[in-house]
Amino acid sequence: MWIWIVLAAVVVIVVIYVVSGYNRLVSSNVAVDEAFAQIEVQLKRRSDLIPNLVSTVKGYAAHESGTFEKVTAARAAAEHANGVAEVAAADGQLTQALRGLLMVAEAYPDLKASANFLSLQEELSSTENKVAFSRQFYNDSVRSLNTAIVTIPTKFFVGMANVKAREFYEVPEASDRNAPTVSFE
Amino acid sequence: MAVSFRAQQKTNQRKTWFLLGTMFVALVLMIWAIGTILNFQAYLLVPIAVGISLVGVWTSYWKSDTLVLAMTHAKVVQHEDAPQLYNIVEEVTMAAGLPMPKVAIVDDPAPNAFATGRDPEHAVIAFTTGILRVMDREQLQGIAAHEMAHVGNRDTLVMAVAATTAGLLAVLADMGARMAFFGGRNNNSNNNPIAQIVSIVILLLAPVAALLIRASISRKRESLADATAVEFTRNPNGLRRALETLAGDSTVVQQKSTAVAHVWIESPLDGKSKSMFDTHPPLSDRINILREMEGLPPTEAA
Description:
The complex is a heterodimer. Chain A is mainly α. Chain A has one domain: de novo design (two linked rop proteins) (Up-down Bundle), CATH 1.20.1440.20. Helices cover 77% and strands 0% of the residues of chain A. In chain A, helix 1 runs antiparallel to helix 5 (115-150) and helix 2 runs antiparallel to helix 3 (83-106). Chain B is mainly alpha-helical. Chain B has helices spanning 5-37, 45-62, 64-72, 83-96, 129-134, 137-152, 155-181, 193-233, 236-247, 258-261, 283-294; strands at 74-77, 102-106, 113-116, 124-128. In chain B, helix 1 packs parallel to helix 7 (155-181), helix 7 packs antiparallel against helix 8 and helix 9 packs antiparallel against helix 11. The two termini of chain B are 19 Å apart. The relative contact order of chain B is 0.17. The A-B interface holds A 35, 38, 42, 119, 122-123, 126, 129-130, 133-134, 136-137, 141, 178-183 and B 83-84, 87-88, 90-92, 94-97, 141, 232-237, 294-296.
C-alpha cells in the first residue's frame, strides 16, 4: 500500500517538474516574440510620423533636399527589413537620418517655433524613447530565454519545447542605446 | 554602479515578506491571547473580525482606481489633453512590459504623484498640476517609472494585505478587551497567571506593533519602487533629480486625508523628522541610494 502512495507521489512530482520546465521555456519564447512585435509597432509608428515631419520641415527649408532624400530612403529601407539583425540595422540608419533632419531644423528659428513642428518633435522623441525601451525589454526577454536554455533544469526540456537561443537586438551605433546618463558636477 | 537596482529590489522584496510574516505571527499570538483570557467560545470572534476587516479593506482595494480618483478629484486625460505626459507614461509601459494605465491629473499646486488600482489592467497613475509645472521631461519620466513600478510590484495589493491584517488585529484587540471587561471569562479559560499577563500584553501591544509593521512595509515598497523605476528607465538620474526637486519644495498637497496619504510619491503626512510611523523613507535616503547607483558620492544630509 505505502509503496504505491510513494510511487504515485514520485510520478506526480516528476510530471510537475517536467511540465513547469517545459512551460517556462515555451512562455519565455512567446514573450520574446511579443517583445519583438512591440518593437515593430513602435518602428511603424515612427515611420508613420516621418512624411508629416518632412513636409513640415520642407515648408521652411525647401532647399535641404539631400537631407529629405536620406530620410525617405532610410524609411523605405526600414519598411522592407526582415529579421532581427536587418530590422536593427535599418532602425539605426533611420535614427541617424532623422537626427540629420532635426539638425537642419535647428537652423530655422521660425520652424522651431511653429506649434506643428513642436508637437511633431515631441511625438518623434517620445517614439524614439519607446523604440529604445521596447528593445531594452526585448533584450531582457531574450536574455532570460537564453539563460533558461543553458541552465538546469530547463536545459533538459529544450528539445521537447522546441525553442532555440534568440538573437539580441543590437543597435549599430553605441550612442543610440538608452544608456544611463551620468553627470559629474 | 556601486549599488545595483537588482540588489536593492531583492533586499526590499525579502524584507516585505519578512514583515508580512511577522504580522501573521502577531495575528496568531492575538488569537491565542483571546483564547487564554476568555473562554474558547471567544474564538467565534475571529471569523467576525475577519469579516469586518475584509469588507472594509477589500472593497476599497477592489474599487481603488475609482475611489482614489474621486477622493483626490483627479481627472483622467487622453493623449490629446496632455500629449507629453501621456507619451512619457506610454514610454515607461514599454520598458516595463505592462499595459497602458489610465493617466490622470490632480489640480493641486504641490508637486506630487501617485499610482493605484487593483491590478495592472485597472491601474491609474496621477500627477498634480504642480509636478507638471516644476519638472522637466526626464524628471517626469523618473516619476512615471516609480509609479509604474508600484503597479508592476502590485503594491496596492501588498498594502491591502497589510491593512487587512493590521485592521484585524485592532478589531480583535477591541472586541477581546470589551468581552474580558464585561465578564466573558469563565472557568474554561486558562488560569495560569503568567499566560494571563502575557495575553493582556499581547492584546494591548499587537495592534500598535501592526501599525508599525504596516508603515515599515510601506517604506520598503517605496524603496523597491525606486529600484524598479531604475530597472525600467536604466537612468537613475531622472528620478534622483525629481526627488531632489521634491525635497527642495515645501508645498504639500492640500489633500491630507490619511486614507490616501500612502499612495503619494512624497508623503503629505510624514513630518520633517524621521518617525517609525512614516509611510515613506526620508527623501534624503532615497536620493542617496540613487546617487550611489549613478556612482556619485552621497549628499551631506545622510
